[in-house]
Structure formats: structure tokens, C-alpha cells
Amino acid sequence: LVLSLAWLGPALGDEDEDEEVVEEEEKEKKEDEVLSDDIREEDNVLVLHEHNFARALSEHQLLLVEFYAPWCGHCQQLAPAFAQAATELRNESSPARLGKVDAMTQTALATEFGIVSYPTLKLFRDGNRTHPLAYTGRMDSQGIVRWMQRRVGPSATLLQDTDTAAAFVNSQDLVVVGFFKDLRGEAAQAFFEVASEMVDMTFAVAEAAELFQAYGLSADTVCLFKKFDERQTNFPVDPARGLDTAELTQLLRAHSLQLVMEFTNETSNQIFGAKIPHHMLLFLNKSSSEQLSLRDGFRAAASGFRGEVLFVVVDVTGHGADVLPFFGMTPADAPTLRLVKMENNRKYQMEQDNFSDLAIRTFIQAVLDGKVKPHLLSAEPPEDWDMRPVKVLVGKTFEQVAFDETKNVFVKFYAPWCPHCQAMAAAWEELAERYKDREDIVIAEMDATANELENITIHGFPTLHYFPAGPGRKMVEYKSTRDVETFSKFLDNGGTLPVQPPVTKTPGNSTGKEDPSALGTDESRDEL
């Protein structure tokens, strides 16, 4: 910013007086524009500020507002999709509109709506300024359009008779119908809430007695109709507990997937978005008919674990080739099985691959019961691992180095492809050079994509952990600035930083950070 201001304001003497006058006129013009409640548009997106915000709320029944920072990379990435969504909604004459607020200049609005990261999207309905709804959809144009469309009209279609119900059930590969005796009751209202959020599924409701009878129901029930696997899956509403929205959402996500998924570019979002806690993977070469036949036993084992374990076939010569390094595998290792616990990315492997449905079921149950230890990756230690200032650790050598009671060990966990790791590599080398003659301090690094540890899970790159000397196997995560001087203060102070004076925060943003949940990663660390 300082450099750009220097470029904008060169000292060129009196000959720039006319330019200064023009700049002053432009500034006054912009100030007049901001003070007005007129609403201008950019690519069909309303440009909002504190003087026209109230007018925008009064004129638009549904208004989705993006609070952004001009310097935010995630905001810049979202901008084209946001504009495209705004154009699509405008072209279909939807009452839903999109707007944007520069939270850096409109600090009063940012403070009013508690904006602490960027981009933040909030939906304002019927002019209500006090209770905006947080945006929960996908950060792409189609996701935004669907999310808004679901809020314009009813979130579920009312089915009147058996003919309309049959047509609806057969209209798509997957639909959801809520059967309720009272559409104004709490269970039905919870169902409508779920329908408004799950915009990638189509919902309907029914209360006619003939429809209950036609689909073999006697009480309130949510039914998932599919043209694959089980044709009708019923989720009865518990009369005592009612309908839990989070539970129903998870059930629908789990049961909307095929019993056995194939890992492809098209299905990867479904596989990971379903939030099923365990994934059972069959790695095979689809060009081999012998290996393809192993899918029968794999599928036979799957039905008993629906919702708890997702079964996935991975073609090692297709889209699945890209994930093989994360398992320490090559195409030659197929066919083979792995079970992954998604909460900590722990991987489990049979002692000897057995592809029968009984063997697969037995293995999975043993893992779920905690009777199987995870299979941990480890590279081989380089011969010169301790010859350079930065010591190179692998899974096999980590324990003896990090938990040496005579050493204070500072470890960088990195990924070779991570740009943030690459950016701090020079600082880490300089730090190691600075402390290379200290017998009590070790500066080390470990490739966390090729090495795994039983009791330490790495969620993003780079991650820095400090292991102080002495008994107790202690570990401190370093979360401050990643430069040599701050690292040195941390080490010289025994694994903590000296107390710093409080930092003045920018109004409307307590962190000054891009939102790490908005588009997948934050500005300083790559998530796994």
C-alpha cells in the first residue's frame, strides 16, 4: 500500500497543479455520490454504503449482501461468480437481488453486522435489518442462484394427489417427500427449514390421507425416493423428539449417495461433502477384468454400514491416480483396501488384503471397535538428515529427535507443493543457521504428506510445533508471525513470546483476515 501511494503521488512540482485540481474534483464527486441514497450497479450487483443501505432493504424483498475487502484474494476470486449470479437472477425477474459493501470504507456497516472476515455474505429479508441470515451455500454462481431461488418461493412443492405424487417421484433420480398429518406443525416446519438449506435436492410435502396410504405410511415420515439402490428409504418422525434438522440433513446426505461410489472429478464434492465419518476405499485398475470383479464383494459388505462408512472405488489409472501419494502407494499396489477415519485422516490397512464381503465387514468392525492400529506412512531417513542446519525428520525418526529430553526442538511440518511453506523456507534456513551451534536447540522439518505420526495430526501447512526439553512429552504450537526475528524471540524466551502491547483493531474487522471457510484456505496456511 505504501509503495502504491508513493507511485500515485510523485513530487513533480508546480506543473501538476491542473492534475491536482482534477483529482480534487473527482474526490468531491465521489463524496457527493457516497452521501446520496442513489443506488448504482456494477454487473447487476448493487453497490451499497451507509447512505443507501436502508433504501436498498426497503426496495428489495430478498437482498444478499457481500461484505468484502478490496485486497482480499478470496473476494477477488468470488467477484465474477457473484456478478454472474446477480445477472442470472436479474434476467429471470427474480425478487432476489445481490449487493456488495466495501467493508474497508463502510466501517459503520461492517461494525453493525459484525463482519470479522472476508468475504462474508448475509441475506436480508423483507427489509429486516436486525436479523440477517448467514449465507450457507456454495461459493459459485450456481450455488448462489439455487440458494436464493429456494428462498424466493416455497422450499417444497405441495403434492395434492397420487398422480402428481407419482409424477414428482419419477421426475428426477432423487427426490425427498415429507409426509405430515399437519403441515403447520413443528415437524413440517423443521422439514421446510431443511429443504431451504439443501438446495441440491428437490423437496415436496404431502398431507392427504390417500398419499399416506399409497406409499405405505401411517405416521409422519420423510421419504427419500431414488432411481438407484433402495428405491424408497423412510425416516419416521419420532413423536417424542420431533424432527431434528441436523440429523435429517445428515441422513439425507448419507442416503442420497450411491451405496458404492466411484471416485471421479464429478463425485469428489459429493463424497467429501456428505461428512460420513469413515471411508472404505477399494483401489483397483479398471482395465483389469479380474480386479473389476472384486467390486461384488465390496458392494455386498457396504449395506450394513450405510451412514457410518462410505464405500468408494478408486481407479488407480484414472482420477484416483492423484490421491495415491497420500497413501504412499503406486498403481502397482492395486488391488488393495484402505479405511480412512475422516476426523483425523488416520488410515487403516489389512495385514493381508482379503476382498470377500465377510473379511471386509470384519475388518471394518474391528477398526470401529478400536482394535486395529492405524497404518502410518514414513519415508526413509536421508543419510545426511542431520548434516545440515535444518534437520530432516521422517516418521521413523521423529520420536527420538522431537522428544529428546536434552533438546528444545522446533519442527516445521510442511507440504512440498505448499506456496506458504515455500515462502518461509529461507527464513527457516536462516533460523537454523543462527542456532546451529546451540547444543540445546534443534531446528527441524518434516514432509507431512509423506510421514504420519500416531499422536499428532497436521491439519494445514505449514504447521510449527515446539517440543521443549525435559520430561513429559510436551508440545507447543507456534501461531505468531513467521519471520526469523520473531522465531528467535520465541526460542530465546523458552517457547513463548514476550508479552506484546495490545494491537489496535480496525473497526468492523477484528482479524484483518480473509475468511478461511469462504473459499477453502486462509491467506497464510494451506488446509488439508
From TrEMBL:
Coiled coil: none annotated. It is found in: Endoplasmic reticulum lumen. SUPFAM superfamilies: Thioredoxin-like. Disulfide bonds join C72-C75, C418-C421. Its EC number is 5.3.4.1. It comes from Myiagra hebetior. InterPro entries: Prot_disulphide_isomerase, Thioredoxin-like_sf, Thioredoxin_CS, Thioredoxin_domain. Keywords: Chaperone, Disulfide bond, Endoplasmic reticulum, Isomerase, Redox-active center, Repeat, Signal. It comes from the Eukaryota. Pfam families: Thioredoxin (PF00085), Thioredoxin_6 (PF13848). This is protein disulfide-isomerase. One of its GO terms (cellular component) is endoplasmic reticulum lumen. One of its GO terms (biological process) is protein folding. Residues 14-35, 491-528 are annotated as: Disordered. The gene is Pdia2. Gene3D superfamilies: Glutaredoxin (3.40.30.10). GO terms for molecular function: protein disulfide isomerase activity. The keyword Chaperone applies. It catalyses: Catalyzes the rearrangement of -S-S- bonds in proteins. Its main location: endoplasmic reticulum.
